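#structure-requests
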Amino acid sequence: MKRNLFWPVALACSLSAASIHAQTSRDEAALRRLPVAFCEAWAKHDGHELAKVMADDVDFVTVGGTWLRGRADFETYHSRLLSGRFQQSTNRLLKSDVRFLGSKTAVVHWTWSIQGDSDPDGTPRPLRFGLMTMLAEKRHHRWQVAAAQNTNAAPAPPPEAEGIHSPLSLPATPERDVKPASKRRTDMKHATGEFDVKVLPQGEVDKAIGSSLGRMSIDKQFHGELEGTGKGEMLTAMTDVKGSAAYVALERVTGTLHARSGSFVLLHNGVMSSSSQQLSLTVVPDSGSEALTGISGTMTIVNDGGKHSYDFAYALPGTD
């Protein structure tokens, strides 16, 4: 009897092809998950969570041309951004595309829309669109972003693109009014240092089922590139759920900032739960006085085991 040797080989090839297809499908799903995870972390305004999508040695270029090398710098930049002028922003994934360059390398393109952010001087930005390109690598059985370039969409496609089909088309970003150069703020400066703070209860706590409302005084002493005091009042809301609370506060800062003396007011807005924490400190528009008249900006504060530090990103007219 003549044996047919073809069918075992064909079966083996079929099984191998099915295995490769299943693996590729799992990898594609994991790659499409990268922009989803990016937007989910953005929605929490959590720079640390956002950085988990990136490789340790990531090279990331922002829409503004800032080149961030390494996950640590990526996290620092986006923590400042998302706790400052982007803390009310929403970033939405529109469409994504995956192209494999090898078994452990792929390119992910995805389009997005963003709204609710503002310029460094506090000017609100309109809804805009963009395209991000991610170079992803599979390391230790996990896909991570090794390099990325983010790009804002133009108000309209250039004439050179006529008749050319883009795999991921973008809506045009509306043109916006641009302030004359004489009226625009300069680039943001940074002042860093430490501070001591005393927070004392004021009056009786208003207790009810599920929550307690309180009022506190704020007394700060700033050290470093901002030398001065902070005086203010805080309204708090505590809940019966451990780790869930919120507060708002107004604080007048008086002192010397990079050799310029005066005062300004900070608006605090903090919300926390067991899974996330959001805190923003924003300069109240037109609250600056003396040499700090016209100041705008945001402050990031860090509490490391009871040791408090600040990073104040600000702009002042007439400085460079």
